[in-house]
Amino acid sequence: MFTVFLLLVAAAAAALALPTGQLDARATSPWCSGLGPGAFDSAENFTLAAYNTTLPNANATGAPLVLGQAGAVDGAEFEVLSTWATYSYNDWPTLSLSAGALIPNSQYGARTTDANVTSGSPIVFVTSVDAPAPVQIYCAVADIDPTGGGEYPLLSLNGDTDGFALCLNEIGAYEQNNIIWQPTPNNGGEYVYDTCYPVNIQILGLNN
Ligand SMILES: *[C@@H]1O[C@H](CO)[C@@H](O)[C@H](O)[C@H]1NC(C)=O
Ligand SMILES: *[C@@H]1O[C@H](CO)[C@@H](O)[C@H](O)[C@H]1NC(C)=O
Ligand SMILES: *[C@@H]1O[C@H](CO)[C@@H](O)[C@H](O)[C@H]1NC(C)=O
Ligand SMILES: *[C@@H]1O[C@H](CO)[C@@H](O)[C@H](O)[C@H]1NC(C)=O
Question: Residue 158: CB partners within 8 Å, gap ≥ 6?
């Protein structure tokens, strides 16, 4: 907790040290860096959906995503982002973005936070009474091109909206189609690489 406090103080000091004209934390925060003027790092109560970037889409919103189970250890439970079509429970009906942290909102009052994501791994969350401090790696990017473009803001991770894919964790009765960040064939059996296809993660329910 004390470490978190120090980090926050450091972040605030860094923000104050910025020259005038660059004080917009949304545009200058490291997690939104390089994403342009449509980027924002805080929003409440939205849902997510996976929109194919190479394959056809059945509609403009995409496949609804929910928090799917990803195992547990003593005192903590892990979740990933799964398609509702393959994991039809929804204990976290909405999520919020809080200064770059992606926080699922539990309908049962569980404390769930995002965790760091490494290349080749799922987007992961931790549920625990003493869940770790959230990580600030996400941003939202609205398409502000006046001539058109995407209808919904996209989620980015580490400043990139294009690294997400949906991959089956296994093929069989309990298969779950989960979001993986930059999938790789060398994944230790965590998912079936041949089933992966690239998606954008659309943020629904803010203005639309
Ligand atoms: C988000 O949902 C919470 C819980 O229902 C509510 O208290 C809050 O006002 C909502 N925020 C917005 C911006 O709608
Ligand atoms: C994206 O492509 C996959 C594989 O063809 C398909 O199952 C899924 O329904 C598509 N998503 C949408 C939103 O249509
Ligand atoms: C859009 O298509 C996906 C994939 O077929 C489906 O899961 C989803 O329910 C559809 N959404 C709407 C709003 O019809
Ligand atoms: C989080 O993951 C990134 C790679 O995606 C890595 O560079 C970074 O050091 C990690 N941060 C922490 C606090 O583990």
Answer: 31, 117, 137
Determine whether 99 is exposed, middle or buried from the number of CB atoms within 10 Å of its CB (0-12, 13-18, 19+). Answer: middle
**Pick the residue with more confidence: 13 or 154?**
154
- The reply to whether ligand 1 has any atom less than 6 angstroms from the CB of 207 is no
Q: CB of 55 closer than 6 A to ligand 2?
A: yes
CA distance 23 to 80: 34
- The pTM for the full model equals 0.88
- CB under 6 Å to ligand 3: residues? 58-59, 61, 63-64, 85
